[in-house]
Amino acid sequence: MDASSANRGHSHEPGFRELFTPKLITTLARGYRLGDFRADAIAGLTVAIVALPLSMAIAIASGVSPDRGLITAIVGGFFVSALGGSRFQIGGPAGAFIVLVAATVQRHGIEGLVLATMMSGIFLLVIGFLRLGTYIKFIPYPVTVGFTAGIAIIIFASQVKELFGLTLATPEPGPILEKIPVLVDALPSVNAASVVVAASTIVIILGLKRLRPNWPGMLIAVAALSVAAAIFGLPLETIGTRFGGIPSGLPVPSLPEISLERLHAVLPDAIAFTLLGAIESLLSAVVADGMTGRRHRSNSELVGQGVANIASALFGGICVTGTIARTATNVRAGGRTPVAGMMHAAFLLLFILAAAPLLSYVPLAALAGVLALVAWNMIEKHAIRALLGGERGDALVLIVTLTLTVFADLTEAIVVGFLLGSVLFIDRLAKTIAIEHHMDFVPEDVADTTNGQRKPYDPALAADPDLVVYRISGPVFFGAASTVGSILDRIADQHKAFVLDFRSVPFLDSTAANTVAGAARKAAARGVRLFVTGAQPHIRHELHLHGVRPPQVRFLPSIDKAVAIVRRREGGEAG
Questions:
Q1: How far apart are CA 521 and CA 240, in angstroms?
Q2: 217 Cβ partners below 8 Å, 6+ apart?
Q3: Whole-angstrom Cα distance, residue 65 to residue 70?
Q4: Domains along the chain?
Q5: Which residues form the STAS domain (predicted)?
Q6: Which residues touch 6 (CB under 8 Å, ≥6 apart)?
Q7: Sign of the torsion angle spanned by Cα atoms 331, 337, 343, 345
Q8: How many CA atoms lie within 13 A of 510 on its CB side?
Q9: I need a surface site. Which of 45, 202, 307, 478 has the fewest CB within 10 A?
Q10: Contacts of 182 (CB under 8 A, 6+ apart)
Q11: Does 490 have pLDDT greater than 90?
């Protein structure tokens, strides 16, 4: 084999610079013109208009003040674009985090939430620099669909109080099974004004999406209902009445209270933030890749997300991740480089510097209407129908993940769904292994001359009591080891030689190698000669490590060679 052929067999291993250089630097180095800046500025403004009401709504639903959502979008969004591995990613608070953030606030307060966010940023940095981002894609699709749908259900349930303007006799519980009775008991306190405002918000957004899809429906709906509520003096809770308004600027950065006891207390929440943040951000980057034909750098993206979360926590923000809806809006609006995401953060900062007092008039019912639509759009209806109508295993993973997300815990749902999906994958992969007896297969270099019927490898071999040949195809690993073992157990005294052809085996793990080693010992004890043919070097190495080596076993390049040796009753060298 010449050098060029050898090189083709080895994939290029990217270096540190190639893996971790932010896309901002890459794109600017290739040239950045005025036309690019104009396109990025327009896209950044468009995304900022969408992000303004959404960031406040997500923060309120998460149990924190709306300004923390805006801080997250401004500070976190800037660093996600400046240091991340995607051209188009828009970072900020995400609906998927509402459940986790609200639970963390209930358990540990705002200080605990900020500390968990900072720890999550550090964990994301570690995951990125350890180059583990590539493995996030191994989360099964039914798991992502299931937990996204589950989160959507929880988000909607969390907005029922605001949608109907309910007055609760007791604080609203977090778990949905505890929440439902409390909401049902409060139904007599329905506020008609809240219902009208929430329903009007939904109708305006849907109507504009249908009639004027390029208009910022969320902002227009929230602004229109805020004006109407103020003019008519509707009896509604607003940002001003509940939170006292929005500060006109960013706070001074500061560290949360840090102690070993507090670090230990918020560790599970930080891990949950990390896991969900990594999945959500990389899924968003993949969506952007699909829309643009570009490729993101997953490990660089996680590093950018890590810095963004640390920075957000320093300013009192909440968890930052890549947001699919805002990222898709950026792409559709014509964003070309990460500058668009940075401009989105700059425009949001300008909005609160110039118009923070006006945000006090926004009704909470209008923001609840926005989140109700967000929850509905999060549910991938087509994907759910396809999974439920497809393989029963995929449907099971979807249902289990969705159920655990809604009624148990998001982290538990992801872990259980992943494990269940992995077991199903192992089962399916194990079934792909094929073991052919010499009566059933034809060598690749022998033409089939029996009018479409398979013929034996060698007619004489069919009647040979001294020799049996098996060809194994597919990956031989622990899931398929029992199948291979049952075949190897057929070694009997009436056969003087046993041939195992590994030519079509791309992979063999230690469990399967140990199974072959047991067969080799059994064959040696019975005086049966065992030949292994066509094994690739890495498979031979694995077999050698487990004791499958001469003189117990002979390694040969082909079945033909093994058959010839057996028939000559000669030993021969073991290749």
A1: 80
A2: 204, 205, 206, 207, 208, 209
A3: 10
A4: 34-235+249-425 (no CATH), 434-568 (3.30.750.24)
A5: 457-566
A6: none
A7: positive
A8: 2
A9: 478
A10: 168, 169, 170, 172, 173
A11: no
